Amino acid sequence: MASLSLQDVSKIYTRKGRADNWAVKSVSMAIDDGEIIALLGSSGCGKTSTLRMIAGFESVSQGSIRIGDKTVNALAPAERNVAMAFEGYALYPPLTVYDNIAFGLLRGKVARDEVRRRVRHVAELLEIADILERYPPMLSGGQQQRVSLARALVRPADLYLLDEPMSQLEPQLRSLLRGRIKDYLIAHRMTSVFVTHDQTEAVALADRIAVMSDGVLQQFASPEALKERPANLFVAGFIGEPAMNLLPAVVAHRAGRLEVLLGGRQGHEALRVGFGPAARIAAAAGLQDGQAVQLGVRPHKVRLDTQPPGGDMPAAGGNAQPAGDNIVQGPLAFNQWQGDQSHIGVELGGHTLLVVTDGALDLAPHSRVTLELPLAALHLFDSHTQQAVLHGADL
Ligand SMILES: Nc1ncnc2c1ncn2[C@@H]1O[C@H](COP(=O)(O)OP(=O)(O)OP(=O)(O)O)[C@@H](O)[C@H]1O
Ligand SMILES: [Mg+2]
């Protein structure tokens, strides 16, 4: 096993008569020995290009890649001791499934009995032990994909690169194998980078996730950090289902408190959201009065006050309002019961805030809804730079 580091790595595809295509733009990341990493991003963002440069199947246009303490830019794939499961599987059609999986082991001069034991083990792990005597053209896409994955996992290597290893599998099998593969990678201390565009899979499998967009590494952090401290508006909107609410606002200082006015400069009294003692926070975050920001809050973190208007019964489950939490009100836009949770839309400052709650709620159409925005769940992003300037959890 080995560590892996990318230093300012770019991939530029050039073709005569065509503009250069910067598929990967100055990506840097350091991956520890034994760490499991997900490359997460939408189609075309440069995940496969990054993986193929690490494996040596694509040249590195700029920057350098190190595996362990060796710079590998100039090494051929076979000299890098990297096992890869390809997006397109790349199985050998004339060989049986067994021989496809055993191929890398036989080259490595492992004893025959040991080869048989390891192939069986990984085939059972991936639920393909019953097709070991078949040939790849006779297999379904999902079976071929698991053979390709088995072939990569079974051979000893310094680094494992898995390009969308479970994209063809149905959800139940996927979630079963996810757990098994994670245990296998951890048990063998396999440094691994896997590509996915499924964030549930990335969160379930990876120690850290590299979020990419348009060739740029947006943030490289643990699943918790991506959720609780997204570095910018892209990550804030991309990670989490349903997506984080992002509401335009402007910064204002008032009576020693830092506030944002929802709905921009026209924001009014009812739509102030406070952050606490102004001077300290504003100085730390470099915030100026009038600065355009986006206020972020996840739909699950907003608390809905179900107390009837004018009533003096405390809301179910709570009464004393925790210090620093913000109360805002707005008209109900929609109330959808999804079978296991409610999606509730509330108009705030010209935008619709989505709230997710566990139970079904009986709310009259267009009624005024009271919401609590817990300080610890709030995020502020600079509208211009798109970067995070403040996370309520840090205050
Ligand atoms: N061999 C190539 N020649 C020219 N351009 C390429 C080549 N391979 C990929 N690209 C381009 O580079 C960009 C990134 O492609 P890449 O395959 O790395 O994306 P990806 O994140 O793996 O996408 P997907 O999720 O669809 O597999 C795309 O714009 C793609 O068209
Ligand atoms: Mg790809």
From TrEMBL:
GO terms for molecular function: ABC-type ferric iron transporter activity; ATP binding; ATP hydrolysis activity. PROSITE patterns: ABC_TRANSPORTER_1, ABC_TRANSPORTER_2. Residues 4-239 form the ABC transporter domain. The keyword Transport applies. Gene3D superfamilies: 2.40.50.100, Nucleic acid-binding proteins, P-loop containing nucleotide triphosphate hydrolases. GO terms for cellular component: ATP-binding cassette (ABC) transporter complex, substrate-binding subunit-containing. Pfam families: ABC_tran (PF00005), TOBE_2 (PF08402). Keywords: ATP-binding, Cell membrane, Membrane, Nucleotide-binding, Translocase, Transport. The keyword Protein transport does not apply. InterPro entries: AAA+_ATPase, ABC_transporter-like_ATP-bd, ABC_transporter-like_CS, ABC_transpr_FbpC, ABC_transpr_MalK/UgpC-like, Mo/tungstate-bd_C_term_dom, NA-bd_OB-fold, P-loop_NTPase. Transmembrane segments: none annotated. It comes from the Bacteria. PANTHER family: MALTODEXTRIN IMPORT ATP-BINDING PROTEIN MSMX, TREHALOSE IMPORT ATP-BINDING PROTEIN SUGC. This is ABC transporter related. It comes from Verminephrobacter eiseniae (strain EF01-2). The lineage of its organism: Bacteria, Pseudomonadati, Pseudomonadota, Betaproteobacteria, Burkholderiales.
